[in-house]
Amino acid sequence: MNNMAEAASLDDVSEQESFSFERVIAPVSKATFYEKYYERAGLVVERNDPSYYLPLLSLDRIDEFLTTTSPDTSQVAMVNAAADIQTSDYSTADGRIDVARVYELFEEGATIILPGLQHRIPELGALCRSVGREFNAKFQTNIYLTPPNAQGFKTHYDTHDVFVLQVSGTKDWRAYDVPVELPLMGQKFSAEKYDFIDPVEEFRLNAGDLYYCPRGLVHDARATDEPSLHITFGLMGRTWTEVMIEAVTGACLSDPSFRENLPVGFATDPNFDRDAARAKFQTLLASLGDHVDFDSVLDEMAHAFISSGTPPLRGRMHQVGVGESLTGSSRIKSGNDLIYRITADEEEVELQCGNTVVTLPAHVHGILTEMMAATSPKALSDFSGDLDEAGRIVLAKRLIKHGFVSAV
Question: Fewer Cβ within 10 Å of end Cβ, the chain: N or C?
Answer without folding.
Answer: N
